[in-house]
Amino acid sequence: MARYGMAIISSGLTLIICLFLNQTVSGNLPLTLFIIPVVVSAWFGGLGPGTLATMLCGLAGEYFLTEPHFSPFSMDTADWERLTLFLATSGLLNWLILMMRAARQEVEAKARDAIQRQIELEAQIAERERARAERERLIAELETERARLNAIIEHIPAGVILAEAPSGRIILGNPQVEQILGHPMIFSPDIESYRDWFAYDVNGRRVEGRESALARTLQGEVVTGQEILYHRGDGIKAWISVSGAPISDTSGAIVGGVVLVTDIDEEKRASEALREADRRKNEFLAILAHELRNPLAPISNAIQILTLRGDDPTLVAQTKEVMERQVHQMSRMVDDLLEVSRISRGKISLQMTPLDLAEVVATAVETSRPLVEAHRHTLTVSLPERPAHIKADGARLAQVLSNLLNNAAKYTEDGGRIDLIVEQAQGEAVIRVRDNGIGIAPERLPSVFDMFEQIEGAADRSHGGLGIGLTLARRLVEMHGGKIEAHSAGLGKGCEFLTRLPMLAQPATEPTLARAEEFPAPSASGPRRVLVVDDNVDSAESLAVLLRLYGHDVRLAHDGEAALEEARSFRPEVMFLDLGLPKMDGYEVARRLRLEPVMGGMTLVAMTGYGQEEERRRTREAGFHSHLVKPVDFDMLQELLSSLPANQSRNRQGRGKAS
To answer: Looking at the whole model, is its pTM more than 0.90?
Structure first.
């Protein structure tokens, strides 16, 4: 309706303008002015409004503008021609404008279609670009993840094996697999080929191909920590741990399996070694209990004998010898335990001096001779023509050789043969201790120097001892920069212990053995005033009884404070002072006594169960003259007492000397 209203309005406006012009212009106005509303109506409204404008303008022009005015029936031929021409022209214009509008609409439609296609194409191009960028991003992420996975597989401290399902073909194995298994990777084509991998379970049963962890993962099973004894390509049997899991796709179907192979050989053998050490420890404790009870039994019997027949001198003498031997045996065992403990903790220091190895051999032979002769062995010592000069702690090295000789004597049947041979080879002194005794089983040779290890013969008989002598020997030899080895052809075929020590480049001018601790030469004898301080009442009283039997005047104290009071009142010439006392330890008692001038002539003797070098140093610093280790040989005690001068006001001679 708006289009037709526009035709009517434009036609009316044109008519008004023409009427206005008609009054000012003489003659008839041309109908050309009415072409304007026709064109406008046709252009903006289309054919209908154009046609309406043509009819309205033609009729209105002739009716209002043709003279005579307002008389439609008074037109002449010229008027009709003019009207016909107007109508024809207006119709033609309407048609032309219609064609133009159609062409324009068609062009606009095509243009819109082209624009739409362009927009769609651009959207497709943009979508393709986004898809390409997303694809490139995903490819980059995939490559990154693949690189990460490869880095993990290549550097993980375990072997990784990957197989595809269902065939079982192995498609991947990292270098660690070859290192752990000791041979190149075997890319088995199927599960049956897994039998080429030589594996045994903890019970020693062969693990077949389909029983392997990898084959089980391909069946959907998760394997955790399966321990396997694997026969490596280099001939070594090693323990490995295998864990595995199946690989599934998004639908849940199993497409492969992966296993992780870990080398646990060291951990497994360390665990077995710990169990073995624990077993030996338990055996040692049982042996220790046995060895300690052995001397306790005759000591207990001796006490009963002395109780019943203490008035029989002959029986008392025999009993005394028995008790002395058993006490010496117990002391030796305790000393061996302390020695091993001190060496293990690095608490021992060697007194290294240049010396002739022959002197060490002589000392060791002299020490072991009683045991060798008791078993009626033949001992042969062979020394080189030229002296073998070494730098060593003579006492410790003699202890090593004595231990080896004692072992040979104990583990050789009575009447056997023992050879001690010293040789020189390539700048080393080589010491061989060889016997024809019970020998050592080949499987026991690697552990013969281990702590608590006992050498047993074919009859599995015990020869006494705690099983620490060879351990002590090895550690002392190693502290000298040497090596010690054990050789044996088997049980019943004897054995040989070979010790190698570095020799000095040039012979020493004054080779000497490390001098043993000694007491001053006796200068006087007679009864002494003696104070015994020990919190062990039985130990203190038994020592007091012995001292009184030899005529000495003895007083007792059982703690640090009582020791000070007794010393000030009694003024002893000699004080035997325990270190671990209640109320005040022996070190503090000694320091306080040394601050009192009236006590300057008293000889202070530490008597304790601690014999380490650190304890001896502390007693010297505290002012003790001597350091005795319990149980004390009473003959040594008598020698100490007899060495003291008769004059109480003597100078504090011998201070710092340990016994």
So the answer is: no
